[in-house]
Amino acid sequence: MVAIPANAPAANPHLRPFQPIHPLHAILLAFPFPLFLGALLSDLAYRATFQVQWANFASWLIAGGLLVGGFALLWALIDLAVGGRARRRRNLVYFLVLAAMWVLGLINALVHAKDAWATMPEGLFLSVIATILALVASWLGYSRFNAREVK
Q1: Tell me: the pLDDT tens digits for 43-63?
Q2: C or N: which end of the chain has fewer Cβ atoms within 10 Å?
Q3: Do residues 9 and 148 touch, judged by C-beta distance below 8 A?
């Protein structure tokens, strides 16, 4: 009888065990979605009330999402560079979604830097898109696409 190591996949030797996201990367990835969502909700509140402070809130929330999202993007770039060949495709998709989120967030920040009246409706549309991309990036980052992958 042959002893099977505890860390070896039981059913198929070509399957690799799930490698969870690094805890620091998980912390960085936790911030962009709620910050961009808060900016979207602030834009919706500004559209409903025309109180300038809502536009200011949105600007600060976008800036926070860009700051922490930039560090998550940097981590994803490093992970893409040092990741193995089998993980390159999923890391590339994750990196591209994060990069698109960051670029659209930057454009959104530039739109929100204008006068409050001038931010609508472009700022609202960009906030919706950036929020969706942040959600997709969080989903991809935390799920790592599937629990096991083929070499």
Answers
A1: 999 999 999 999 999 999 999
A2: N
A3: yes
